[in-house]
Amino acid sequence: MKVEYSGYLGKCKPLIRKLVEELSKDYGYVSVLGTDTKGRSYRVSRTGTIIKDYDFGERGFVVRIHNGINYSEYSFNEIKEENLGDIMAAVHSSLGRAGNLKRNIYDIIVEDEVAENFQGEMEVNPEELGQKAILADLTDIRDKGLAESELVVNFSASYSSSHVSKLFLSGKKELEQSYMLGEARLLSLAARNGKIKYYYKSASGMKGYEVMDEIRDKYRETVQESVNLLDAKPFNPGEYDVICAPDITGLIAHEAFGHGVEMDMFVRERSKGADYLGKQVASELITMHDGATAAKQVSSYLFDDEGVMGTDTVIIEKGILKAGISDILSAGKLGTNPTGNGKRESYERKAYARMTNTCFEAGESRVEDMIASIKCGYLLEGMYSGMEDPKDWGIQCIALLGREIRDGKLTGELISPVVMTGFVPDLLKSISMISDKVEMEGAGYCGKGYKEFVKTSNGGPYIKAKVRLG
């Protein structure tokens, strides 16, 4: 079924069009982004049930104008015929003055005439399914998880949905989109002799409640792995051959040349990537993408928060750094075409160059052959966290666990947690084998530094690399 577009934005559209037309009499560029996002989150565990509204729900608008020097923005959360004049007066008084401050200069955005709309698809509408049915399903999964082992001190089943609708109007553009995002997670917490470990399974996508089908029957595996982790062994830090599962591959892609090629950082001279365009930064086996159309996941869309159509950007092609990802203003400053990566945490926040769906392309190897090629190393899985420094290209990725490989076979021994560090080009150039299937994951958020959280997804195939573990 099609995801329904916001009735509120539909009702406001004529007034937004009128606002754009009136302001365009005084300013060389005017656009308005309208957002209407709502949703619910559910979590059932041994300790209780939590139901709350989606954390990033919002309803409001942001107008952007060219003030004669650069761009200014004004946000508001309600528009009616009777307050239209007040909105225009506020724009004129607060945004129309260039003042005497030293500012960056930006040219007026040149747009093509575009009128498009997009409605996502879903199989089970959580808004129609209802709270009672969702809680009953999550409770059943929770009970099954708790019954799996006496070592389980808690088990939770979670589901969240967000129904996103957006409208973008400017002098030449009329864009609308609506879609449903679904996320599901199982988490098992096991304890023995004062030692506590956890393991999780998650799923996400441009989906309705059907996303639960991907993990509903994985409660047994989730519990068993949390119990197995209680026997995780210490290991000697050092350099190892490793196989990275798709979630860790995605974490590497996200941290290495996701943040590292956000082109607003090029403008600020905060990214080493700007100096390496056209140069080899990875193994010739590596081709990497980012874009709203690079995959169908939680960061797919028709247009970004600046009205730029979503694209698929090839960041690395056969080891060569080819391009970055940009918002419309950083692209203008650098003389490049915008890539449709301008994203806002909310209509009240600035648009930044941000990742969407970031992944490595598949290769030709089989996972079993990759494992067989390792004398002494680990299979890393379970994305925990990551960070990098775009200026110096240091990277740190933390995996929930590592499965020991000896003489080409998995021994069953585990290490946990596993910290992987290194210099980005060294890590990427060490990749020697890539599996033949890509998997994507997007059950989380990405911040710009310590703030500006937005939905992203990342993934890829299994990769073999040489890394430093600690």
From TrEMBL:
Q: Name one GO biological process term.
A: proteolysis
Give all residue intervals belonging to the Metalloprotease TldD/E C-terminal domain: 237-464
What GO CC terms are in its UniProt record?
Answer: cytosol
The source's superkingdom equals Bacteria
Which Gene Ontology molecular-function terms are recorded? Answer: metallopeptidase activity
One Pfam family assigned to this protein is PmbA_TldD_3rd
InterPro entries named in the record: Metalloprtase-TldD/E_C (IPR045569), Peptidase_U62_metallo (IPR051463), TldD/PmbA_sf (IPR036059)
Query: Belongs to which family?
Result: Belongs to the peptidase U62 family.
Tell me the protein's name.
TldD protein
Q: Can you name the source organism?
A: Parasporobacterium paucivorans DSM 15970
